[in-house]
Amino acid sequence: MSRSNLRGFHDASFVGRLSGVLQSGGKLLVQEAVSATQDTLQQQVLLGGLTDIRACPDFASLPPGSMGQLLTVEATRPSWESGARSAISLKPKAKVPNGTANGVHSAQSPTQAHSNGTATDKHKIWSLPVSADDELMDEDELLTEEDRQRPEVPSGAACPPTKKACANCSCGRAEAEAAGVKADLTPDMLDNPQSACGSCGLGDAFRCSTCPYRGLPKFKTGEKIALSSDFLTADA
Amino acid sequence: MGTDLLILFGSQTGNAQDVAESVGRSAQLRQLTSTVVAMDAFDIARLHEQVAVIFIASTTGQGETPDNMKQFWRFLLRKSLPTDALNGMQHAVFGLGDSGYQQYNTVAKKLDRRLAALGSAALLERGLGDDQHFSGYDSALFPWLEQLWAALQDLWPHKDQSVLPGSEGQLPTCKYSAAILNFYDARAVLDTPRETHEQEVFAWTAFTRLEAIASGLAAPPKQFSGCGPGRPFMASVIANRRITSPDHFQDTRHIELDLASSGIVYEPGDLLNILPRQNPEAVQRFLRRTGLDAQSVVRLAAAGAESADRVRQSVQVTVGSLVAGALDIHGACPKRFFFEILAHFATEPHETERLLYFASSEGRDDLSQYNTREGRTVLEALEDFPSAQVPLQWLLSIVPRIKPRQFSIASSLRAHPHQAHITAAIVDYKTPHKRRKQGLCTGVAPFRAFLEERAALQAAGNVEIAPCHLYFGCRGANQDFYYKEQWQEYVSTGVLAADGGLVAAFSRQDGRKVYVTHRIREHAQQLFSLLTHKGASVYISGSATRMPQDVIAALEDVVAQQGQIPQQEAKVFLKALQSSRRCVIEAWS
C-alpha cells in the first residue's frame, strides 16, 4: 500500500517502481489526495503498467472542512512480462488503430501495424478521439544532440546597433558616434539646447544612438528643456 | 481548406500570434491567401489534407508548450500515428525563444522533428528567434521569411507570388469595427449603475472576449456566473504591509486579499492574476492626444462577422472605460505592427519616413533601441509622432490589451480561508537611457503557501507531515528575510526540520557574500541522504536565469561527491529527478 497527501505524488514512473516489487498478479493499493476537478491518479497507475484498476470509495478521507479528497485505487500487476506477444486476428475492415490489445505494450512499431492500411483507413486516425489507452511518445526523444545545444549569446547582443547617420549631421557627433563615444550632456545644453542636424529636438524616435539628448523630452531650439516629474535628471 | 496557406500558432504572451498574423499579411501582399489560427482552435482531423502549413511556436522559460497548442501537441505525440500520416504536406516552423534559458526553443525544435517523423516535408530549415539578440526575434525572422517566400515560389512555380505594385502602401483589413452610438442608443449603457472601476473591469472583460473571437483563438467558454479566467473578481485588500526594513532599498509588501464569496479556490503553487489599474493622468493624456471623447459610447465588433453574430458578440462601453480599463497605454511596449499602421496615419513626411523605417527589416535594430530597450509606451510613441490621428478601431488593433499580472500565491486556504496573500517587491530601475521605471516581482511566496498548507494539515492531526528544509537566499537577516518569524515557528513545530530545516544565506551581511549554493555544499551529507534515501523532492524558485541552474549544479556536486560517482552520472540523476517531477524549477526574469 502506498499513501500520500501530496497530489501527484504517484506518477507513472513511481508506480512503475512500486509495481516492480510486486509479484506477478500481486495487488497494490494506492491512496492519494486528489482535488475534485483533477483526478489523473488512475491514469498514472495505468501508465505505470498496472491493470484491473478500480477506485475504492469506502476508504478514509481527509479531515472535514479540508480541500479535496483522499482517493484510493486498487490495481494489479499483470501476469505477463513486457515484450510478451499474443496473436491478434486482423479483420479486413475493422482496423485497431493503436495496435495494442489487453493493455500489453506492443513491441511492434507503428508502421508495421499499418502497412496493410488503405488510404482512408490511415486518415481515420486523425478523427479518432484520444482515449486513455492511447500512448504518447516521450517528446524529449525527438531532440538530437545538436538540438540540445544553446547558441552562444550573440556578440552583438549588448552592442549598440549600426545606425543610419543623420542625413546632414555637421556637428561632429557623427565622428563621436563612429568612435562609439556618447557626447556628454552639460547643464548649458539643458538651458539652451541646440541641434545642428535638427533631429535632436524631435524626440528619441529621431535621435542618433549616441545623441546626448537621448532619454530627454522633445525641445525647441534654444528653449530650456522642461523635465517632467517622473523623470530623473540624466547623469552628467 | 480553401486558402493557400495554413498558419498555425502556439502563443503564450501573444508574440507568436503577432508573428503569425504578420506572416499572414505578408502572404497577402504576395497574392497568397491564408488562414491564421491557434493550433488548439484548429480541427486537427483536417491537418493531413493541408498542402502548406506554417507553424509559429514559442517556448516558455522551462521549455513548456504554450497553452493554446497543448492539445494539438498531445495529439501529434500519439504513438499510433504512422510515419506517413502527413505525407503530402509541407511545413515550415519558426520558433520564438530565449537562449538565456536552458530549454532554448525546444518547442519549435520538437515540433519540426515530429512533423518530419510523421512524413511532412520541410519547406526550409526551421527558424529560431532569440530574445537575446539586439532586435529580439526579428533578427532571425526577416531572413527566414525571405527563404520562406522563395521556397513557396519553388513549390508553386506557376502561381504568381510577386508583390503587386502599390500593395505595400495599402492599409490592411482591421480586425475590429467601432461605431459611436447616438444619444438614444447610448442611454442603455450610460444608465447602467456601475461605479468607474467596475465599468473599467467590465470593459476589459468584454474586450478580452472580443479579442479572442476576432483573433481566431479557441472560442471562449460560455458565460458562466461566477469568477474564473477572463471573469475578474473585485477583491478587497485586507492588509498591505511593508515587510522589508525601513532602511532597506527595496520596498516589499505583504498583501492580503479577501476572496469572500467569489468561489475562488486555489492550491499551493497556484498563481493569482491581478488586473492592474492605470494611472488616470496617463489616461487623460491619451484621450487628449487621440481626441477621443471619454463619455461617448462605442459599439465594438469583430470585423467581417456575420450580422447575427455581430449583434450577439458586440460590446458596448464608454470610450473612457475602454481606454482606462482595457488598453495598455502607458505600460507595455507596442509591437512592430503598431509602427506599420501609424505610418499610414502620419501626415508629416519626416514622421512617415521614420515610421516606415522602424517597421522595415533595415530599421529593426533602431526600432529595438527606441522601443523595447527603452520600455517605450504607446502614449510616448504617439506623442513622438504627433501628426498621426489613428481611428478607434485601429487603436484597438495596435494598442496592447492590458494583461493581468501574475503572482505566486503566498498563502494556503487551510491556514487562511477565503483569503489570498501575495508578496510583491516594488522595483525601481532605470532604462539604458536613464529613464525611471517601476516593476514588481515575487520570491519565496509559493513556499510560504506550501508550508502553511503542511502546517495546517499537521495541526488538523490526522496526517503525518515529513519535515521540510527551506533554503532562503536574501541580502540580510534584518533587511529582507521575509516571514522570518513564521519560518522559526515552523522549526519549533516540526514543519521545518529541527536540523537543517531553515538555512539562510545572506549576501550582504557582515561584509560576507553567502549564497544558497554555498549553503547547499555545506549541507552536502544531509541533502544527499534526503535525495537518495528519503525520496525528497526539490523545488527551486529564483529570479534571473542563472540562480536555478546554479542550484542544480550545486546539487550535482553534492551527489557526485557524497555518492562517489562521476559528475556525469550525477547530472543524469538530477535530470531524472526533473523528468519525474521530483525536481521542479520556477524561474522568472
Automatic annotation (TrEMBL), chain A:
Keyword field contains Iron-sulfur: yes
Region (Fe-S binding site B): 197-211
Biased composition (Polar residues): 99-119
Motif (Cx2C motif 1): 197-200
Cofactors demanded by this protein: [2Fe-2S] cluster; [4Fe-4S] cluster
Residues that hold [2Fe-2S] cluster according to the record: 159, 166, 169, 171
Cellular compartment(s): Cytoplasm; Mitochondrion intermembrane space
Motif Cx2C motif 2, chain ranges: 208-211
GO biological process, one term: iron-sulfur cluster assembly
Stretches for region Disordered: 94-122
PANTHER family hit by this protein: ANAMORSIN
Assembly, per entry: Monomer.
Protein name: Anamorsin homolog
Source species of the chain: Symbiochloris irregularis
TrEMBL record, chain B:
A GO molecular function held by the record: FMN binding
Protein name per the record: NADPH-dependent diflavin oxidoreductase 1
Sequence ranges assigned to domain Flavodoxin-like in this UniProt record: 5-149
Localization per record: Cytoplasm
Residues annotated as domain FAD-binding FR-type: 230-484
Cofactor: FAD; FMN
Pfam families (UniProt xref): FAD_binding_1, Flavodoxin_1
